[in-house]
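Z., the sequence and structure:
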Amino acid sequence: MLGLSVSQAALALFVAVLPICGWVIYTDLKFMKIRNVAVLALVAVFAVAGFLVLPLEVWMWRWVHLPVILVIGLLLNIALGVGMGDVKFAAAAAPFFSADPGRVMLAILLLQACLILCFAAHRIARAIPAVRAATPDWASWGHKKFPFGLVLVATLLGYLGLIAAIT
């Protein structure tokens, strides 16, 4: 719509989703929950900002990603117990990703790297007494499950940041 380059569009989307991503990280660490309103906000950002910065045909086709990832996520929830907040956030984030095979591979590699890095960072942080003392009521410190929203946020921001930097 605005005639931005791929790099400029990715940067604009990065900036637009950053506050929502920060909020998701906080709520997932503190409560082990990703709020529905955060998911809806992410969808709203794509609806408005995506419409402005992406070519119309690209923007329209990317809406297909949301229900596809939602269905896959629901199946993962049923089969493996993946959290519904994670499922809904992943579905809401899906339209921000290109379906180009090279970009899909980039997203998969980023997801894997972010999983390892976020898991390690979370486990290290919860083992540091000063961090635990500063955040004593955070549910993720004592929970058996890992707050996967961290990984999803890191993947989304990493993807948009890389696309902004390399294109």
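The mean pLDDT is 97. The two ends are 19 Å apart (CA to CA).

Let me know what you think.
H.
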